[in-house]
Amino acid sequence: MLSIPSRLTALLLAVSTAAALPAASAETAPQAETPVITAECTSGHPGEPIQMTLRLQPNTGFRACGITVKLPDILTPETGEGQAAVFHPGAALTGADAYSYFDAASGKLSLTYASASDGLPEDEIGWFTLQIAESADAETAYPITVTANLLHMNSGETLKDLTAEQTFTPLAQTAYTLSETAVTIHDTTKPRKLFLTPEPDAGTCTWSSNRPDIAIVTESGSVYGIADGTAVITATCGSQTFACTVTVRLLPPLVINYPEYIAERKGEQFQLTVSGAEEGSTPVFTSSDPNVASVSASGEVMVTAIGETDILVTAGEQTAVCHVVYLPYLRGDADLNEKVDAMDAQTVLNEYLETTVLEQPPTFNKQQMLAGDTDLDGSITTQDAMLILQYFLNSLNGTQPDWNQAASEIGIMIQ
Known about the structure:
- The chain has helices at residues 4-20, 342-357, 366-372, 382-396, 403-410, and strands at 36-41, 49-57, 62-70, 75-77, 88-89, 96-103, 108-115, 124-132, 142-152, 158-168, 177-178, 182-185, 192-193, 196-197, 205-209, 215-217, 222-225, 229-237, 240-248, 255-256, 260-262, 269-271, 274-275, 284-287, 293-295, 300-303, 307-315, 318-326.
- By secondary structure, the chain is of the alpha+beta class.
- The chain starts with a helix and ends in a 5-residue tail after the last helix.
């Protein structure tokens, strides 16, 4: 660094040189810009970690630095062995030695860095992880003082006491509310969803269970019962916690006489009954689509239109479902062209090969499944293809087509 007399002499020389030149051609020699040291902090709420990045802009050829950051008492760096603060060098730092230290009594975070050849990076020196104390006052500006001494790479001169005064302001905590504080679960397959309002940003809040053997909770707040008992589900958002008591009392499922009913004609009726309901409960029947099938209070179902619907039976906390299907089809007409021929046998065989041999997803829709399952065993097999082909051959021979007759001719049995 130039001494004061030397700097004054240089300044006078520059002024006199500039005065001797014509105004139109006056040129000022470029001056090295004084670097600025900063400690930039990410945002965070009380109780959360943040990242503090040290930056030097611009870097004019310095190869070593000593940096001290006076932290407010609400910020504490992550430390490793002893009082060494964990320092993460910038991506441009190579072949360098770095030493960091945190004096908890004074709140000073020190970093010494030296590069043998490459010099300091042009921008980011590196970063530290800091923890915001839960006692920090939100929206209060806390002072941070950064002081740096820099050693020039070529001249060996030192730029001393480069200082920056900054502040860090913790974010105000969002005031959340939990949707429920007590719930009861009766079915292991049906989760109970808990909500925080307003909806937190991803990663802001975490969910946990104190008894995962009784109830577990997903990252999104869905609670599943595992076994009878009581568990506490906790949502943690920074320094805020919210609890919901979960009582698990598993009930046996309702047993319904028709889990699925395939209707053959419009206007068809059938009676639903359930067993296993808790004593004192009364089954209630509802249709998800009354336009397809309606249901009476006593459980009598009438099919009214083409389509599919679910009849839900509820008895207290127990439920059961009957899936109603009315999709008119011609038996054996797997390609749905309103006739049974050899192409239907080929279509069924292709579906079998794709799904069973090649293990590809099914391509048949519900109508095709019903039409193609000619032996009525609930699946598509080579036997269905053989039965369709025999049925078709019988029709060509002038024989009145009959599925039972075709089955007996090829030696199979219809369910």
